[in-house]
Amino acid sequence: MKKALFQLVLAVLAVSSCATAKYYGGFTPETVKQDMVLLGPVSSIYYLDEKNHESFNDTLSTFSETLIASLIDEMGVPVSGRIELNEDEKEEAFAFMRFLVEKDRKHLDKFPIPGILDETLEAEGYRYGLVLVARGMTRDAKGYAKDALKGALLGVATAILTLGTMVMYTTPNPYSSQYYAAILDAETDTVVFYNSIGPKEKHPLHADPVRKELAKLLKDFLK
Fold it and tell me: The whole model's pTM is what?
């Protein structure tokens, strides 16, 4: 997948608010239960090394996609199957999610879904497609320990300099994750559901925290 597009899209997704409003476009969760397929998921995991250099990690991203897909099945989200996306389709899914993040939630029904994803749904005989996009960060343990120590030393220094009247310290994030979901309607070419959650200090590669975040993201569709 093109790294330039990833960086642009993820930069926008990273600043989106965890308070993003949920959107429904004229349907209920019951509507999709017999005719929805999972598109993807699409995930991008970044790794922060010991020197605090952040880079996209393809292996971790693939692992994240596999984990999310297995959890979706385990949790009972009403999808009839899964369509694994190729690189072009993944790029389109990321770009479209970026587009949705920037738009007013009240008017998402006015924007047509990407043609390439619409064609994929129609070719497989599905009306609804659940698109899941994930972004996450993990980091090197030594790098985290160094940053934590620096933060603690800053607290000690400010306490000494201010005679204890002020203590200022920093706490580094060991990891983070955020998730986005949209349901596409191939019949009307519109988005009928959108929701997002995060960013939060949750591990993007451990099953328990990922399961909990997905449950919040898709709670309306769980049994």
Answer: 0.78
Give the burial string for 101-135 (b: 16+ CB within 10 Å, else e).
Answer: beeeeeebeeeebbeebbebbeeeebbbbbbbbbb
**3-140+174-221 CATH, one of 3.30.1560, 3.40.630, 3.40.50, 1.10.3470:** 3.40.50
Maximum Cα–Cα distance across the chain: 71
Spatial separation of the C-alpha atoms in residues 191 and 108, rounded to whole Å: 6
Task: Give the three-state DSSP class for 190.
Answer: strand
Q: What CA–CA distance (Å, rounded) separates 210 from 203?
A: 7
Q: For each of the chain's 223 residues, which pLDDT tens digit applies?
A: 444 444 444 444 554 444 456 888 767 777 777 689 999 999 999 988 777 777 899 999 999 999 999 999 999 999 999 999 999 999 999 999 988 888 777 778 788 999 999 999 999 999 999 999 999 988 755 544 455 445 444 444 454 555 556 545 455 567 889 999 999 999 999 999 999 997 888 989 999 999 999 999 999 888 6
Supply 173's token pair: 């994030």
Per domain, the residue ranges of the chain are 3-140+174-221
